[in-house]
Amino acid sequence: MLSLRVRPPTSFDFRRFNAGDLERRWRLSRDCFLSFSPKLEENRGVRFGVKSSKSEVSFTAAEEEETLPEELQPELMPKHVAIIMDGNGRWAKNRGLQPWDGHRAGVEALKEIVELCGKWGIQVLTVFAFSTDNWIRPRIEIDFLFSLFERALKSEFQNLAENNVRISIIGDSSKLPKSLLRVINEVEEVTKNNTRLQLIVAVGYSGKYDVLQACRGIAQRVKDGEIGVEEIDERLIEEELETNCTEFPYPDLLIRTSGELRVSNFLLWQLAYTELFFAQELWPDFGRSGFIEALTSFQQRQRRFGGRKS
Amino acid sequence: MAELPGQIRRMSGGISQLIEQIYGFSRRCLFRVISMGPIPSHLAFIMDGNRRYAKKHGLEDGSGHKAGFSALMSMLQYCYELGIKYVTIYAFSIDNFRRQPEEVQSLMDLMLEKIKSLLEKESIVHQYGIRVYFIGNLALLNDQVRAAAEKVMKTTAKNSRVVLLICIAYNSTNEIVQAVKKSCINTSDNMEASGNYKHEDRDSDIEGTDMENQEKRIQLVDIEENMQMSVAPNPDILIRSSGETRLSNFLLWQTGNTQLFSPAALWPEIGLRHLLWAVLNFQRNHSYLEKRKKQL
Lengths: 310, 296
What we know:
The complex is a heterodimer of chains A (310) and B (296).
Chain A: H1 19-30, H2 38-42, H3 62-67, E1 80-84, H4 88-94, H5 99-120, E2 124-131, H6 139-162, E3 165-170, H7 178-191, E4 197-205, H8 207-223, H9 234-240, E5 253-256, E6 275-278, H10 288-299
Parallel strand pairs in A: 1-2, 1-5, 2-4, 3-4, 5-6
Helix pairs in contact in A: 1-5, 4-5, 5-6, 6-7, 8-9
Chain B: H1 3-34, E1 42-46, H2 50-56, H3 63-82, E2 86-93, H4 101-117, H5 124-128, E3 130-135, H6 143-155, E4 162-170, H7 172-200, H8 206-216, H9 220-225, E5 237-240, E6 259-261, H10 272-295
Parallel strand pairs in B: 1-2, 1-5, 2-4, 3-4, 5-6
């Protein structure tokens, strides 16, 4: 078998894969529900100076500028980042652990990224927690995932509410357990007025499902005589998509971990002009350094949206 | 003595022909080896980087696209030799209409010239028996280009060996909007038909009519069969040249499980090695993806 080790699109930094980093990750995963780091709580009282126009986000607090790493430029930060958190199962298998240990480690990694997004002025973070395709997994794993999600929401929701984070859940909720649905509704209700960061968790979601339900909504409106068939356009579909819960429905950057070069039916319509970044690390290993690498790559890209940069 | 330069020219011409034949032969041998493994059935290309290529080599503006066209012809030849049945190319996006009018016009002229050349006897269409589809909002094109495109589609309709889908005046979001519109029209037609039926039978159960309404709700297949790209299966591999890693509103619906590759080479520089790299990677992941497909 030929081995063509052409350099992949993302750079592979061997320095990150030192034993110390892996050791730290594994230790974190043993205690699953750590609260957010003290630093975030200190910043609670600090307000962002965020302009309402979509073109600029400026930081008025000096402390926030200091926390942004020097490789990153504040004016080029993406407003909306989407992440496919892939690789928990493989991470656990590599260590001889059970899949649920991998998912617990994944929750830790997610907490770190949410914290960084809040600090660095990213407005929306969408994460792909559970796809419609994941229903084929063993029942025991699915039940564990939902109970993990429920416990994480219950334990972190106070913290998130205090840190001015808004949580939204998108996806087909019809198959979710009732207890989880209750917690979701409560969390969404309590955090709906928060403005610092919007965390959108996609559960039971797929891009095709989203477009399909938008299409059904439009068909209903046409049937009710509210709109004519000729008026159906891109804007109408955007209004009906589940990502209409946010001001910035289109991710600027999509990160997929674990080296797979696929989108796997996540956010279909919304990814039209999104920059894609494929990271080699498995999700529990993707931390601050991986995130900085993704953001650096994003900031170097030339986005033309079909036009020309002359 | 005067015959020598002529003889040398003939010899060098003969040698280069020989080299070409050896190269073609070894390429076909290589393809036969690779075909031992699974071969993708559908490959898609985003042909990015023509203008940058022209700039890089100090050529005049239009020649980048011309170089891109010959790269495309080579790529098609390799794909069809390898046994890939469907090839889709992103020729012109609806967003590209926002470019300078001169550039848009020169692109349209180039496309008209090349579309017409597809009908010639020596063209690749006849060589490989290609059926050509033009996918996109053709109403946005000027009359000449649209007429030429329709003529090509009609002429090649009988070919069935391999298929070339040319996305011109195309946007994935636009394609989805059109499919949604058609699905809504079909649904309201169905509702009207069943409504007429219901009027005749006043004793029908309320629950029964609710169930009918449920069935009449739009399903995924309704949208999919109304997509213009439904003439081909979903792409197995998408290659975007020039190193940009984004979809740019191309085949969003169809690329859910497509392997995405973004070699740094500009489109006119794309070559056999990039295709081989993509296909070999596809073969590596193939068994896992097939297993997933069966489970779904």
